[in-house]
Design goal:
Blueprint: E1 3-7, E2 10-13, E3 18-25, E4 34-39, E5 45-51, E6 58-60, E7 68-73, E8 78-83, E9 92-99, E10 113-116, E11 120-125
Parallel strand pairs: 2-11
Antiparallel strand pairs: 1-3, 3-8, 4-5, 4-9, 5-6, 7-8, 9-10, 9-11
Length: about 130
């Protein structure tokens, strides 16, 4: 069992930055690929970014490449999402997740993630 708690969301203006944190408890996440997903109003939950166990490989959806950075601190059992140059279309509930299924699919398949946080809201005003 892994408990995930996100924090760091808020209301910001276009061009601002936010840093989301995902604190894990109950067990270490050092052996798990971790991901960030988001759900915008009226839309499905979508993949944002993922990071492998050592942090050496990261993945991003195209719309956030160059603006968002995912990182992790295994000693602190925490994953981060640094979001720069925020846009109104980044407005969403952001979720942290731990990947439990490792198959041929890439890191963005929602059903591969077995533990989820409750989410943190990010709102970007224009």
């Amino acid at each position: 069992q892994v408990q995930l708690v996100e924090s760091g969301g808020g209301l910001v203006q276009t061009g601002d930055s936010l840093r989301l944190s995902c604190a894990a408890s109950e067990r270490p996440i050092s052996t798990l690929t971790m991901g960030w997903f988001r759900r915008a109003p009226g839309k499905e939950r979508d993949f944002v970014a993922a990071i492998t166990t050592s942090g050496t490989i990261t993945y991003y959806t195209d719309s956030v490449k160059g603006r968002f950075t995912i990182s992790r601190d295994n000693a602190e059992n925490t994953v981060y999402l640094q979001m720069n140059s925020l846009k109104p279309e980044d407005t969403a509930q952001y979720y942290c997740a731990a990947r439990l299924i490792y198959g041929a699919s890439g890191p963005g398949r929602i059903t591969d993630y077995g533990y989820w946080g409750q989410g943190t809201q990010v709102t970007v005003s224009s």
